[in-house]
Amino acid sequence: MNLRDLAPAHVRAIAPYVPGKPVAETARELGLAEKDILKLASNENPLGSSPKAIEAIRAALGDLAYYPDGSGFELKGAIASKFAVKPENIVLGNGSNDVLELVARAFLTRDESTVYAQHAFMVYSLATQAAGARHIEVPAKDYGHDLDAMARAIAPDTKIVFLANPNNPTGTFLPWADIEAFIARVPPRVLVVIDEAYGEYLPDERRSPAASWIGRFPNLVLSRTLSKAYGLAGLRVGFGLAHPDVAELMNRVRQPFNVNHLAMVAAAAALGDEAFIAKSRAVNAAGLVQLAAGFDRLALPYIPSSGNFVAVRVGDAAAAYARLLAEGVIVRPVANYGLPEYLRVTVGTPEQNARFLAALARALGRA
Q1: Which of 26, 157, 270, 346 is the most exposed place for a label (fewest CB within 10 A)?
Q2: What is the reported pLDDT for 366?
Q3: Residue 218: how many CB atoms within 10 A of its CB?
Q4: Pair 185, 84 in one domain
């Protein structure tokens, strides 16, 4: 017998998520030193991790023989304070991916559907498929979400709408007033999940007010991560904010120790590291300008971004990716997001951005 046939058809149909190519793997394949590899593929913070998080981890190393606090009391307290919510509004996740999957696991059945936009984060479709549900992909508008079309796409069997702001991998941003109006249009029986993985990179005038909406919209779920701006990608820690009834159901399907002790300790400390976030935001804003200027010099179209990455149109993206990789520069092809001519590049330090732009010019024969 074929052991694959033991799994349900909807599981066999899943195409596994492919992360950005690791530094160590690239170094081995190319025979280069790891220090010579430049990874700009996974939207990681080029400044590293929050110093307060590192300090907190060092202080907690003596606790590794004990299981984590399954309730996440200290971390929930830090989140509650920062976002003006209560602990019962919070669901902890092994990264925000886990939060997105918990929503699907808690609420989706095989007889229901989800709605999300074209060019949206792949985990939305993966979480939908894993639950055996069907997905409704709405064509993008200017590489971002078409809220009117998404509202019209909601079917009688729709249970969840996934919405990212800013969106990954395109970096598009929607005014919060438009999103608030959209939520008001969505039937109360449908959960609206707003993925705010890149929220810390938004300027003050675009900062998300969505946490304050939970009282008015019980069907709203927010997803946040500390992998990006806080520089804790290696620890995998995120959280969801929701109405207590929604959060309680998500916690029923959450693994008891889904966030490890060091991750929670680091996250609680990082949430108070405003200086690190301010520096990260400033470096990112300058990097977006630097990359845009470089793309303009190379006459390359790109999608203006509100995240810590930019999608740039290079034509034969697979060939350009391979040539960049040969120089030890790792970026992200996004053909699997319906953007076969684009590469997504993470914003780095000024020196990293300059190295990438020079390598890209050579890769495209425009040096």
Answers
A1: 157
A2: 86
A3: 13
A4: yes
